[in-house]
Amino acid sequence: MRVVSKVVLGLISAAVSFSAVAMDPRFKDSDGDLVADTPTNSADWIDPPVLVFAYTPVEDPAVYAKVWEEFVDHLATMTGKKVQFFPVQSNAAQLEAMRAGRLHVAGFNTGSNPIAVNCAGFVPFAMMASKDNAFGYEMEIITFPGSGISKVEDIKGKKMAFTSETSNSGFKAPSALLKDKFKMEAGKDFEAVFSGKHDNSILGVANQDYPAAAIANSVKQRMIARDAVKPEQIEVIYKSETFPTTGYGHVYNLKPELAQKVKDAFFSFDWEGTGLQNEFTKSQPPQEKFMPITYKEHWSVVRDIDRAMGVTYACK
Prior knowledge:
Elements: H1 6-14, E1 50-54, H2 61-67, H3 69-79, E2 82-85, H4 91-99, E3 105-108, H5 113-120, E4 122-129, E5 137-143, E6 159-162, H6 168-180, E7 191-194, H7 198-206, E8 212-216, H8 217-225, E9 235-243, E10 247-251, H9 256-268, H10 275-280, E11 289-292, H11 295-298, H12 300-309
Parallel strand pairs: 1-2, 1-3, 6-7
Antiparallel strand pairs: 3-10, 4-10, 4-11, 5-8, 5-9
């Protein structure tokens, strides 16, 4: 079940100006599902000999290439295509790759989904979940023991790390929270720095490079489980309500038969004994399968936060 925090609701009701979401003119949404339609002209479909797949940016892409290895092989078998894992270095690079036609199947992080949908033609259809369909993560504001920060207000006058401006838990949600609930703004009450990735922010706090950071706790849980950081290196001073996790999907103009095979690959994948099972069942709730989702329903809370902050999805 999706929960919208009182802070978010308050921001929504208080928002006085917001430019309407504008999907890139290249795309059409005739059925109102908020994602780009498959082109009606078959000449506009793409059927690449090599499918390129990318997972959302992480600290060490090589680690995740191994994690996704069995799934990549399964995707290749199901589609009859060679599949290449693309280790993206940033959210911007991932978005540009799909927008330019170089990326066909992807997992975009929570906050990047609206931009990917509206600017790159991303069509999300799946999300990781537990066997009983529990899903999601929380945004946490973390610090390290001895930092002098024991509550959010103590961040005043100090540095706080965010991941990137497209990230939900790494920037948008904490910025909304800090402004609405704690009356704190970057540049006025604290110095904002950008690490680029949740992994970088978590390691930065654990190694005492950043006094505080806003992160997705699902990433933190996985890093602790593989001993990349130790629990005693981090203290949590704020935890949000639950948000959806990474959305998985394909670019809008894949040949329909190929797009269906991509979907079938996600929902038929057997997690038992795989790198995905080893890595993602460490989260809480455990992520043990791919669950069908719709962008219109499951990302409504993220779009609400964007509206409250005056965020638009203008495509450059």
